[in-house]
Amino acid sequence: MAELQTDVLVVGGGLGGVAAALAAARLGHRVVLTEVTDWLGGQLTAQAVPPDEHQWIETPHTAAGYADLRRRVRDYYRRNYPLTASAAADPLLDPGLGIVSRFCHEPRVAVAVLDELLAPLRAAGRITVLLEHAPVAAYTSGDEVDAVTLRDGRTGAEVTVAASYVLDATELGELLELAGVEHVIGAEGRDTTGEPHAPAVADPLDQQAVSWCFALDHRPGEDHTVDRPAGYDRWHDTVAPFWPGPQLSWHDVVPITLREREWRLFEDNPGAEAPFSLWRYRRVLAREQLTGVDSDVTVVNWPQLDYWERPLLGVGPDERAAALATSRDLSLSFLHWMQTEAPRPDGGTGYPGLRLRPDVTGTADGLAKSAYIRESRRIRAEFTVVEQHVGVDARPDGAGSEVFADSVGLGRYRIDLHPSTAGRTYVDIEAYPFQIPLGALIPQRVDNLLPANKNIGTTHITNGCYRLHPVEWSIGEAAGALAAFCLSHGLPPRKVRSDQTHLADFQRLLTGTLGVTLAWPDEIRTHRD
């Protein structure tokens, strides 16, 4: 078995993992970064989810590293794509003109940009990247993680990486289980957290739906119908207890009000509470921005793809694999339904010209490389963020979010929980712009493992606003910087938080060297939708 030694091991190459690796390496330490797929970027790339961002993302309140990522994506399009003159000149170029955010772009472009970001540090030997490597074992002594063994998905060969600090940036918090780090899965109970929107009692198997996304263009007059999936008939007739009709339909509910609505694929339907077309929702390439391109490209990550039957955590590997396979089947079933049976405004049925785009997702079949994961294992942390810290309804009137003295970054998103494996419908409630407290990144017991993704000290409820792209980046960046700071100063993470001098020094490192903003102005912190 091969062996490597490094200062910082980052397991998981999503946005949090990449940000962590960049921060630690830029602060002078050697990093090994691993990723289970052959694409870095996680939800932004391998899961094919365009950035979901807030209205202040273009302001100086955004972390410099994340702003640089977005700037480089725009530059990539300007250098390489046949943009119209007006699109190329737009300083806020939005390649897809999607609805979900002001900046929708193709996953493969983000992969190229992330590789570009890492290139100088890889050339200098500061970052080693191991793609298609999955963690299979962790070795501990006392309250420390000594090493992690990873298996190469292509060859089966294994490598063990020993590190002073180990960061878990995996999508499901895999190292927490492998290393025996105390953690939580599923939903905490209101009887424990006091959160108004939590279920009455804890249910570890109550977890958010996953979605297997895919990319499409539209070729009118052509037939690109996929084979009828094995589970098509079942999905055709499935009606969830929280849904207004069959899973394969244009009908769903408004997440905030739970009122029924009806979508159209290419046309707006404002009278049915669907003010824009589904096609535009997560469109990542708009033909009107380009010359010589005859079709948009959109990513399908719509409510009809939510797979809610079985959880991924708290079950055996065979059951997890079966759940993921069924999620893929649901996605292909919805595509087949759109191509063959979906009602059209002209009275006809089906859009056979919908074509999968494997080149956009980097796969043979056009589906994303992996499922979109909304919820992970979460550490039992020194400090846990609950609804009462960030939720508008759970805070005093006009108070804004809780102010954390140990802030290591900022975030902004609604508390957005998709239908769950316990049969619960959406929980979509307003949250104030918030901070990321350092205490949520520090496990209660283990000294040298840090979370760097959706696995921080949040609850099932607050995970709903701490799980999106900009927040994940900031979590990873803070974790990588913390590991570097601790190595440079010979301090354990919990000492950095508990000692005001060390905490102030660390926060100055974040703001001064990495360009991280730690506090919202009060007029933003108290802002309501």
If you had to describe this structure to a student in words, what would you say it looks like?
- This protein is α+β, with helices and mostly antiparallel strands and 529 residues long.
- The protein contains 16 helices and 19 strands.
- Strands 1, 2, 3, 4, 5, 6 and 19 form a 7-stranded mixed β-sheet that branches. Strands 11-12-8-13 form a 4-stranded antiparallel β-sheet.
- Helix 1 (15-26) packs parallel to helix 4 (107-123), helix 1 (15-26) packs parallel to helix 13 and helix 2 packs across helix 4.
- The radius of gyration is 22 Å and the shape is globular.
List the helices and strands and how they pair.
Elements: E1 2-11, H1 15-26, E2 31-35, H2 64-80, H3 85-89, H4 107-123, E3 127-131, E4 133-141, E5 144-152, E6 158-168, H5 174-178, E7 183-184, H6 190-193, E8 214-218, H7 232-237, E9 251-253, E10 260-262, H8 278-281, E11 283-285, E12 297-300, H9 317-340, E13 354-356, H10 358-361, E14 378-379, H11 387-390, E15 407-411, E16 415-417, E17 427-429, E18 434-437, E19 449-451, H12 463-466, H13 469-489, H14 493-498, H15 500-513, H16 522-525
Parallel strand pairs: 1-2, 1-6, 2-3, 6-19
Antiparallel strand pairs: 4-5, 5-6, 7-14, 8-12, 8-13, 9-10, 11-12, 15-18, 16-17
Helix pairs in contact: 1-4, 1-13, 2-4
